[in-house]
Queue: 4 jobs
Job 1
Amino acid sequence: MLAFSILATLLCDVIATSSHYNLTQELRSRDTIKGQVPPGGGMTPVVVDVALIPMNILDIDDAKQVVSLPTSLILMWTHPGLAWDSSPEGPYAKLNVLELKTQELWIPKVHILNGASEDRTLDMGSTATVFSNGSVLVSVSPLMKFTCKMDMRVYPFDTQECGLVVFITSTYGAQGRKKKDFIMSSESLIGSFGSNSEWTLENVESEEKEMLAGVSFLVYTLKLRRKTTFYVISFIVPIVLTSYMNTLVFVIPAESGERVSYLVSIFVSNAVFVSFCTDQMPQGLDSVPLVMMLQLGTMAQSAFFIFLVSYLQRRSYRHQNHDITDDVTSSPSVSKDASEAKVAWPKNAVHPLDDEDAGKQKSPRVSGKEKDAQLDFILFLVSLVINSVFVVTILATMMQ
C-alpha cells in the first residue's frame, strides 16, 4: 500500500512537471513573447496597477539634497496573449501560475523623473509571475535615489516634504497608469516603514498628475520630520553656551590683561565651528537658516566685544595712571618745624576745617578703578539681557 502511494505521488509530479514544461514551451512559441508585444499590440494604453511601498530612509544628504529610499515596487497588468486554459477539462488543468523570465516578456519601463543617479530607469528584476487569466505580476525592491528641494530655514527643527515622481512607459509608447484600488493607505504605508535614527515618517500621499494630454505620472509625497536630539546636543547647545561665554568677559578683571585674548579664542573657535556647519548645508539656499544666524550673531558679538574691551583696557590704563598721580600730589609736604608746632585749643573746642577739607568729607572722591568696575557690571548685565533676548527669539522661531 505504501509503495502504491509513493508511486502515485511520483506519477503526479511527473505529470505536473510535464504540464509545466509544455505550457512554458507553448507560451514561448507565441508571437506575444517572441516579439515582446505589449497588450493591445501597442496601439492602446496599458493599464498598470502600481504599488510603491517605502521601506526605510537609508540616507538623506542635506548638502546635495538627495534622498536614498529602499522601496518595494509591485507592478501588475493584464496581457490577453499570455492567458491559457486552466479549467479541469483543459490541457493545463489546475496549473494557474507560471514564472517566466522578464527578458522574455514585455515589461513596462519605470522611470524616476527626479532621480539623482545617472540611470533613471529601474531594473525590473529577472522573473515575472504569470497567471492563467493573463495577469502579469512583477515585484522588485529597488533603491531609489531622488532629489528633494529642502527648506533648511528652521534646521534642525525642520519638516521636509519630498516628492518621488514615477513615470511608467514602454518602448512602444504605451503609457502605464495606476488604479486607485491598488494604492495602499497612508496608515499601512507608515506602519510598514522601518525605524530610522534621524528621520520620522509622518505621512505618505500618492496621486496621479497629468503631464500632457493623455500622459500622466505618479507622485509619492513623503512628509519627514527630523529627530532633533543629536543636533540640539552637537549644534544648538555649543552655540548658546558660546554666546553666553562672550558676556563673561566683563567679569574678568581688567588688570589681568586676558580679556582680548579670551574673546579672540572664542571668535576663532566660532569661525571653525561655522565652517563645519556650512559643510552640512546646501550651497544654494533661498533663505539663511536660523541656526546660521545664531552662529553669525555670536561671532558678531565676539567681534564687537573685542573692540569694546580694547577701549575699556585703554580707559582702565589711563585711570590707573591718573590715580597714581593723584596719590602722589595729595600726600602732605610739611617741614619738620611746622609739624612739631602745636596749637593750644580749648578742651571741648571744635577744630575748624577749611572749605577744601569740608568738601572732601562731604563727597569722597571715587577712584577710576571703582568707576571701571561699575561700568563692567553694567555692561555685563546689559549684554546678558540682550544676548538672552536674541537667543530666545531665534530658538522660539526655530521650534514653531
Note: The two ends are 79 Å apart (CA to CA).
Job 2
Amino acid sequence: MTKTVRRAAISAEELADEGTEPSCAPKAPPVRAALLEAMSGNALFESLQPELLEAIADSMAEHVAAEGEVIIRQGDPGDHLYIVHSGAFAAFVADAASGQEAKVADYKSGQYFGELALLYNSPRAATVRAQETGTCYCLDRATFRTLVKGYLTKSKVGLQQYLSTVPVLRGLEAEQYAELASAAGVDVFHDGEYICSMGEAADELFLVVCHKGDGGELMRLAEGQFFGESALQEGSELQKRQANVVSVGRTSLARIRREDFVRLLGSLTQAMNRNLNRKVLAGVALLSPLDDALKDQIVDAFVEETYPDGANIVTKGDQGKAFHIIKSGSAVVQASDDVTLGPSQYFGERSMRPW
C-alpha cells in the first residue's frame, strides 16, 4: 500500500513588521560585488533595479557558521535567503519513513539557498549544514518586501514626474499621471538586446532607454527621457516603429501600453478634452460650492456645441432649456446693454431652476 503524504500548506501571511525601516550595514566593495553577482543569477532578482539590489545587499546580515552547524532544518518555517560567501554547505533530505538523510546539493561561494522563503511562508524542504567553517549572508522576507515596496513607491512617484514631461501627455491631471504610473510595466534589457524593432506595431510609450537605428546610432536617451509617445495619439493603431531600439548596457525602462491608457483615461483626445472641461467648470463661480464628485458628474453631462460667428445661441422669449458655459471664444448677450462673455463665463442659469 502506498502512503500518501499531504504537503504542508503554503501561506502568504501579513507581516506585522513590514512597515519598519530595514537595518542597513554597508558592505565592503568586494563583499557587495560578490553578493550582487550571486543575485544576478537568481530569477527572483533579475528584474530589480541596481540601486534596489545594492540596498538589498547592504541589508543582508553576516552569519559565521561553524563546521556541522545547521543553517536551516527540514520542516521548519522558512523566512530567510542565504548566500554563501566562503566555506562549504550541503543540503540533506530526510526520508519520511526511516528518517535517514541523503545529500542532495552542495553550495559554495557565490551560490544561494532558501530563496523561496522570500516569496511565501513554506516549510523548509531540506536541511542545510555547514561542511566546514564558513560565512554566509542572509536576508529575511520582511526586509525584502519592505525594500521592494519602498522602492516601487518611490519609483512610481518619479515615474509620475517623468510622465508629466512627455509633451503628448501635458495637460493631464496629477491623479491621471498617478493612474498611468501604476499601470506602467517595468522591463530590464541587457546590452545589445532589442527593445523593439523597426516595422513592429507602435503601441507603447517607453521611458529611460537607449535608441539605435540601422546604419548607426540615431540618438541616445538618458534616464527620464522617452520615445514612442505617438503610440498614445489618435489613429496610432496603424503606425509602425520607424527605428530599432537597442539597450546600451543594462537598461531599465517603463512602458505604457495604448490599451492601458485607453482603459484608464479613454482616448488621449477625450482625456485632454475632459480636463479642459474641468478647468472651464472650475472658473464658474456659481458652481464653486459643489464638491469635486458633483463637478465631475456635471462635466460628464456636458454636451459640447460649436457655433459659427454671428449664430444665435438662444433667442429672447424662447423657453430656457439649457445652462451654457463658454469653453472658448466669446458670446454677446444682447440686452439693454450688450455684455460680452468669455471662457468660463455663462448664461441661461435660470433654466436650471426647478420652478
Note: The two ends are 87 Å apart (CA to CA).
Job 3
Amino acid sequence: MLTCSFCFLISVSVLDTNSVGTFGTCLLGFYQLFQIMEVSSEISSAESTSPSASASVPPSLRDGEQYHVFISYSSTDYQWTHALIDQLESCGLQACYHERDFTPGRTVLENMSDCINESQKVLLVLSAEFLRSRWCLLEANMSLFRDCLERKPIIPVMLEPDVSVPLHLCHLTYLEVSDPAFLKKLLRVLCTPNQQLQGSTVVPFQPPSIYNGKALQPLTAVNEEGLNKWDCGQFSDMEVPDQLRLVIEDINRYREAVRIINNIALWKKDDMKYILRELQKAIGQANVILSEEKVLMGCRSNSKIHLVYVSLDGCKQKFAETFGEDGGAEEMFQRAVLFFSCGYACCLGKRHFPFPQSASVGHMEGKVCFCQYVSQQLSRGEWN
C-alpha cells in the first residue's frame, strides 16, 4: 500500500500546470473550500401582527381541488399538529389529514395519493418518528407519488431540532417551529398561488445536482449495543436501508461493499487506532464500488458509517483529461478513491474540511469537489 501511495504522489507531483490545465487548479495545490451553503429562507415574514391579516387570503380552489393543504404527520405528533390545523382552518384554509379525510376501506397509499392530488400543497411535519414511519412509506412508494408531488409545492416543517432532512427534501426551504414568525411565514406560503411559487425552493424534485454532496442518515452497526471499542461493528447487508432506496440502483453492489467492511481481518485487537485505520481502508475499497452508485461512505468510529450522495463524474473526467486513456487515468482515479474517499465523505457529512477556503472553482457547486480534496491532502502529506 505504501508503494501505491508513493507512486500516486510521484505521478501527481511530476505534472506541471500546463499539462493539467483546469485540473491543475483543482488537484495541484490551489486551495479550495466553498462555504457549505445552508438553504436560505425564501419565505419573508408578514409585516402584520395578526396571522389572519388581509395579506393571508386563501387562494381559490380550482376544479379537482378540495383542500388548500394536505398535512402528513406521525401519530406521536398528533397534539401539536391538530393545534396547527385549528389555527389554519380558523384563517379560512381547508386542511386535509388522514384521521378525518381518508376514505374507509381504501389502503393508506391510495388515500394519500388521492388526498395529495386533491390538495394545492403538501405540508410535512418532520420529526424523528415521522422519518421512521410516514416518510419511509413515501420513499418506498415514491414512484406512486412522484407524478403528483412534482406538481405540488412541499413545505417541510421542522418540529424537532437536528432532524436529518431526507435527501429528496434537503434542497427545499423548511420552516422551524421554534421561529417566532413561524405561523406568519407558513400562512404566507399557503396563501400564495402555486403558479407564483414555480422555481422557488418549495418545488420538489429539482435536478440531481441540487442533492450533490448531501449527507444521508448514517448507518449504525447492528451490534452497536455491547460493541467493544476494540472491535469493528457489523453492518446489515440484507437489504438497502431506507435512506438509500432511491439512490442505489444495484443492490448487489451495496451488498458487496458492506461485506468488504464486515470481513475485516484484525490482528491487533487492543489497538483502537489500528482498528479504525483498517476500517477506513475497507471503506475505501467499498467506495470504489459504491462511487458508481453516487454514494460514498466514511467513518470516524467503529460503530457508525457516514453516507453522502455525491457524483464524482466531473472529477473522473478531469483525471481522464489529465492522464489520458493510455496514461492510466482510470487506475489513478480508482487509487484516489481508495485512499481519499473515506475522509472526503466524512468531511462532506460533517460539513467541515481541514484546510482554508479558496476561490478556485471545482466540480461541485458551493462545495469542495473530490479532486480538490485530493489536491489539498496531497499538499498536506495526508493519505486519508
Note: Residues 183 and 351 are 30 Å apart (CA to CA).
Job 4
Amino acid sequence: MAAAPARTVEPLPLSASPAATRNDQRGRRHGRSVIPSAAASKTLLPSGCFDVQEGLTSIQKTLQQRRNSGREMMVTIDNLKRLCIDHHFEEEIESAMGACMDLLHSNDLFDATLAFRLMREASHDVSPDDVLRRFTDDTGEFKLALSKDTLGLLSLHDMSHLNIGEEASLHKAKEFSTKHLASAIGNLEPAGLALYVRQSLDHPYHLSLMQYKARHHLSYLQSLPNRDTAMEGLAIAEFQLSKQLHQEEIQEVKRWWMDLGLSDEISVVRDQVPKWYMWAMTALQGSSLSGYRIDTTKIISPVYVVDDIFDLVGTPEELSLFTQAIKMWNTAAADSLPSGIRSCYKAIYTITNEIADMVEEEHGFNPVNHLKNAWAVLFDGFMVEARWLATDQAPTAEDYFRSATYICTHIRHARV
C-alpha cells in the first residue's frame, strides 16, 4: 500500500464520470459551468505528489485482497464511507455485503455491530435484537465485560443511532455505550483514540454533517501506526475539490442575486448567500448535484426576502394583495403591488417556473402546480403571523407550533 505522502493533490477526474458528465451537460443548458475545469482546478489545488488514478487503483486492489477477510473488508468499507469517498467503489461495496451477513452473527461486539450498521445503512432488513442478544445476560442487560472493549463500544454507539422506531435494544445500547465510553476517556491510549471517542460522543456519526465528520476521521486514521496513504490522499483530494466547488457555486448564486437587485429595491433585505446555500450544501452532497444546489439556493433566497417583507415592509393591505397575487400566479397579478414587492413577486414567479421547466426537461413532468401551491401555503402562514403583529397579539408557543405544523404539513402535501 506504500504511496507518496498525501499532502498535495491533483483534482479528482470527476468530469469523466457519467454522473458528472450529465451534470455538466445540465449546467451548459442553463448557461453555466457547474464542475470546475481542469485549468481552474490546477490554479486552486497544489500539483505534485498524489496521483488520484493510482490511489483509486490501489484502493480497488486492497478491496480485492480483503474479500476473504470479513473484518478487514468491513473496516475498509467503513473507512471509505466515513471519508465520503465510497461512491468511487459502489460495485465493490455492494458485492461485499455477503461478508457483512457472516459477521452479523459474530460473537465479537465490534464485528457484529459494524456488520449491522453497514447493512442497515445499505437498507437491508436486519434486526438489532438478533445481533445484540448475544451480548446481554439473563436479565437483558449488556455484559459488564464489554465495558473494556473500546472499539466494540464505539461501534455499538454508532449502531445505536440507527433506531428506526421503538427499538428498545438500541436505546439500551446507546445508554450503555455512552456511559462506559465517557468514563474511559481519561485512561485511553493513544491520545488520538481518546480524542476520537470524545468527538464521537459529542457529534455522533449519524447525527452530523458527513464532510465535518470526515475530517475528524481522517485525523484519527493519520494517528494510527498502520496508515493507508492511498485512502488518505483520495480523501484529501475529494475534500479540496468539494471545497472549491462549493466556493464556485456560492459565487454563481451571488452573481445571480446581485443581478436580481432585490436588496437595492428593498432596503431591509439582506445579502445572505452563504446562509441560504448552507441547507442545499448539506442536503445535496456530491459533485454530480452541483446544479441542483445552485437552483435550490435560488428558490430558498426569496423565502427570506418574503419573511422580511411581511415583518418589516408591507402594510396589511399590501401583504394581502401579495398573497392573492401568489395564488393567482400570473404576471398581471403583480400590477397592483408596490414596486419592491412587485419585483419580489416576479423573482418568485420566474425562478419557480424556470425550475419547473428544468424538471420537465429532465424528468418528463412539470411540477409548477405543486410548487405554486407550496408558495400559497407558505404565504397563508406568513399572513397569520402578520395579523398577530398588526393586532399586537402575543401568540402562545402552541399557536406558533400549530401554525408551523400547518405550513410544513401542507407544503409537503403540495409537493407530492
Note: Confidence is low (pLDDT under 50) at residues 1-47.
